[in-house]
DNA sequence: ATAGGGTTAG
């Protein structure tokens, strides 16, 4: 037995409570609270009773409190029953409050409702502490309606703000934010004075429901009441505004906050991610590190999601490594967003590797992996995975996962399977298909060219078709040239969305495939005359870990059309030669380098042609990969390009070449323009690749190059040009193959160059980007803003 | 006594 205060090092709450409430500084057991277990209780009781300590009520309370707040709150129940049985103690309101709070912490509805009965029996249920503890207990056990019942059946004077705050929080926790808002209104009607916690909770409810008006009202109330915009209130304000689609307002609140912790930063970053401002999200993440605030798993999850959505693989990989270096990323949400990011960036193997390494998987995990397989064309794998999930029977499918399953069916042309899963969704899992699911089905039927069936399906839908549904149908009409149906769908879109450009582009494409060029023109000019405008598309390119964001401007519209038409032509060629798709020849890793080298030779030739550096007769029109290209035929020119590109073969095979650059100089040998081919060949990639898919990916570069001239600058006369290769690491001096390559002393620009992307692609294991580097113009060019 | 941010989507 220990009765000396010296031994109590004050480390645990149990001992410190004893000390603060008791001047005698006496201890009844020298075991820290964290290692107390049930078998200590009788000892505790007997020693306390013997020494007469526990019969003093404040001490009973402090022991109970310590047990209730400790790692095993249920100990307080046992101790209480021992006290009642052996020390004849009756429960007062305070002990009851502690016991109920312990039941909330476990949480145990069973024990909690027993204490509820006990408080009614002892007429203590109207004590405001007991009342609030009961409300909290039902809320914590996810019985918000019961919590509400307790409040409503108590006398008015017994409840206060805390009661209402707890009710509101309980509805939010139970996934009923609308009920939370209702309670807030009721609370106002009963003229209960709100406090900071009320507003904080209501802001969360607004964020969940998108109740923008109530949210702004809360903001006003924060200011009117003179509440400080601290980290708590600030975070929920930022989150509320972002979720209600008012990112600008969120940013304004964020910028004005006097103090910011991880949660504030994460709210703002997540706000950007959720509203498609991916680059801003990444920039904020950098600012956060500069501000010296450490990221946690929530931060990483949302930044990784941004990377995935803009295809920034390098940055995504950096974040992955950052996690490992900072002990982060252990939470499932981070793993999920990494799987999603790798899939979206085209590295399904890496995604699946992470997926397989997980011991725990939630709905998100399965959804992102199924989606990842589906979007990378591995449709059977996606369906197999869904079957595996159902077999494991640990995770309950939700609506979103079925979108992934249906997308897989749609992309894989698996009509039967699509119907099967669509029906199972409601029959087996009691999930009501939403408009998105109907959209998937229309897409599925349309892609399978079952247009009549798709049309009938739309007619039979229990929900009104939206623009996406009509667009899927309209898109499907293109392949079958069904002009009449296409026009009907376009009309529906026009009705639903008169201000947007709607189905015009798609409709004009249907006309184009049926060679109705007059109609194509009518639609196009109609678009220009009326106020319909296309929302600018946005793309990203990642250069040395730096993200560049681009909006499709009106100027580039003409080229877009040319590219689309060329692509349609290619599509038709592919359809005509569909045996290629049925029996795809595969090539090995060694052959990949050869394909790339051949491609580079042609591409460099096209670049030089495009710049008009030599007279056109130095080139010849040739067919390469089914597109028309300009191949150099002048002996010296062709010889230079051939030897330079083919000399790269051994280094590309070893994965040593990072960039192949065509540089144009002025007469002072200062670069005027660079065409950069950034290259990555994954060396660890094991399996073979389809030659057709690699060719298809590379061909897109040649098509883009053919129309890239307007993006480039006029060359000064008497300049020069050369082919340069940037190596990841330099080959040893003695190597024979390396002797062709000499270090170049290209002058550098003073300012970072202006980057213009031309094309990027990812076709495992090859990734390639083509972009222009030009010296910066003095005045920055703003991207066109959205209408 | 009650309290903030995060991952999937046709």
Automatic annotation (TrEMBL):
Keyword DNA damage listed: yes
First and last residues of every PPR repeat: 160-194, 230-260, 261-295, 362-396
Alphabetical keyword list: DNA damage, Nucleus, Repeat, Transit peptide
Any single biological process term in GO: DNA damage response
Xref: Pfam families: E_motif (PF20431), HORMA (PF02301), PPR (PF01535), PPR_2 (PF13041)
UniProt-annotated location(s): Nucleus
GO cellular component labels: nucleus
Keyword match DNA damage: yes
GO molecular function: RNA binding
Domain named HORMA: residues: 590-772
PANTHER family xref list: (WILD MALAYSIAN BANANA) HYPOTHETICAL PROTEIN, PENTATRICOPEPTIDE REPEAT-CONTAINING PROTEIN
NCBIfam families membership: PPR
Protein name in the entry: HORMA domain-containing protein
Lineage, highest ranks first: Eukaryota, Viridiplantae, Streptophyta, Embryophyta, Tracheophyta
């Amino acid at each position: 037995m220990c009765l000396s205060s010296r031994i109590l090092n004050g480390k645990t709450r149990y001992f410190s409570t004893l000390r603060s409430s008791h001047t005698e500084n006496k201890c009844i057991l020298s075991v820290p609270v964290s290692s107390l277990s049930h078998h200590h209780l009788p000892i505790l009781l007997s020693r306390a009773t013997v020494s007469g300590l526990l019969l003093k009520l404040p001490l009973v309370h402090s022991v109970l409190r310590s047990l209730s707040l400790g790692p095993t709150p249920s100990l307080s129940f046992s101790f209480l029953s021992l006290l009642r049985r052996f020390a004849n103690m009756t429960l007062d309101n305070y002990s009851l409050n502690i016991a109920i709070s312990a039941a909330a912490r476990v949480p145990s509805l069973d024990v909690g409702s027993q204490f509820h009965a006990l408080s009614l029996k002892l007429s203590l249920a109207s004590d405001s502490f007991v009342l609030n503890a009961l409300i909290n207990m039902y809320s914590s056990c996810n019985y918000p309606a019961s919590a509400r019942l307790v409040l409503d059946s108590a006398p008015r004077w017994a409840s206060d703000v805390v009661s209402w705050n707890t009710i509101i929080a309980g509805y939010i926790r139970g996934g009923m934010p609308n009920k939370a808002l209702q309670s807030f209104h009721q609370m106002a009607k009963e003229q209960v004075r709100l406090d900071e916690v009320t507003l904080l909770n209501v802001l969360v409810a607004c964020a969940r429901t998108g109740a923008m008006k109530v949210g702004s009202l809360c903001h006003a109330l924060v200011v009117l009441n003179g509440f400080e915009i601290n980290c708590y209130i600030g975070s929920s304000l930022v989150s509320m505004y972002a979720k209600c689609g008012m990112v600008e307002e969120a940013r304004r609140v964020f910028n004005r906050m006097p103090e910011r912790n991880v949660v504030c930063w994460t709210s703002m970053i997540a706000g950007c991610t959720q509203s498609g401002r991916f680059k801003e999200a990444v920039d904020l993440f950098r600012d956060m590190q500069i501000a010296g605030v450490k990221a946690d798993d929530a931060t990483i999850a949302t930044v990784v999601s941004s990377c995935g959505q803009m295809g920034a693989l390098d940055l995504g990989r950096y974040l992955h490594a950052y996690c490992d270096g900072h002990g982060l990323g252990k939470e499932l949400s981070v793993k999920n967003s990494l799987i999603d990011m790798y899939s979206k960036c085209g590295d399904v193997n890496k995604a699946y590797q992470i997926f397989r390494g997980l011991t725990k998987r939630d709905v998100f995990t399965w959804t992102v992996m199924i989606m990842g397989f589906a979007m990378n064309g591995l449709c059977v794998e996606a369906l197999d995975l869904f079957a595996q999930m159902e077999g494991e029977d640990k995770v309950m499918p939700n609506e979103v996962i079925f979108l992934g399953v249906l997308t897989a069916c749609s992309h894989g042309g698996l009509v039967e399977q699509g119907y099967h899963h669509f029906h199972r969704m409601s029959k087996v899992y009691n999930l009501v298909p939403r408009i998105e699911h109907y959209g998937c089905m229309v897409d599925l039927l349309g892609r399978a060219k079952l247009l009549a069936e798709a049309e009938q399906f739309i007619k039979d839908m229990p929900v009104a078709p939206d623009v996406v549904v009509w667009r899927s149908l309209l898109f499907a009409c293109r392949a079958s040239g069904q002009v009449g149906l296409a026009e009907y769908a376009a009309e529906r879109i026009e009705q639903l969305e008169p201000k947007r450009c709607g189905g015009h582009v798609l409709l004009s494409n249907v006309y184009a495939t049926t060679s109705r060029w007059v109609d194509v023109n009518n639609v196009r000019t109609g678009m220009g005359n009326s106020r319909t405008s296309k929302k600018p598309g946005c793309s990203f390119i990642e250069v040395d870990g730096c993200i560049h964001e681009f909006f499709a401007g009106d100027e580039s519209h003409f080229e877009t059309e040319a590219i689309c038409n060329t692509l349609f032509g290619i599509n038709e060629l592919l359809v005509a030669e569909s045996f290629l798709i049925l029996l795809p020849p595969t090539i090995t890793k060694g052959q990949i380098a050869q394909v790339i080298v051949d491609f580079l030779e042609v591409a460099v030739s096209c670049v030089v042609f495009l710049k008009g550096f030599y007279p056109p007769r130095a080139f010849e029109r040739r067919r390469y990969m089914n597109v028309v290209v300009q191949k150099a035929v002048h002996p010296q020119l062709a010889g230079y390009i051939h030897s330079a590109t083919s000399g790269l073969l051994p280094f590309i095979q070893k994965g040593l070449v990072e960039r192949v650059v065509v540089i144009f100089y002025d007469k002072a040998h200062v670069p005027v323009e660079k065409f950069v081919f950034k290259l990555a060949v994954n060396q660890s990639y094991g399996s073979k690749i389809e030659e057709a898919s690699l060719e298809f990916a590379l061909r897109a570069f040649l098509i883009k190059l053919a129309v890239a001239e307007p993006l480039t600058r006029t060359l000064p006369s008497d300049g020069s040009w050369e082919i340069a290769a940037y190596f990841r690491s330099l080959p040893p001096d003695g190597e024979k193959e390396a002797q062709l390559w000499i270090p170049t002393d290209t002058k550098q620009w003073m300012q970072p160059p202006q980057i213009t992307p031309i094309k990027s692609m990812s076709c495992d294991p090859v990734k390639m980007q083509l972009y222009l580097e030009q010296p910066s113009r003095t005045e920055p060019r703003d991207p066109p803003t959205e209408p």
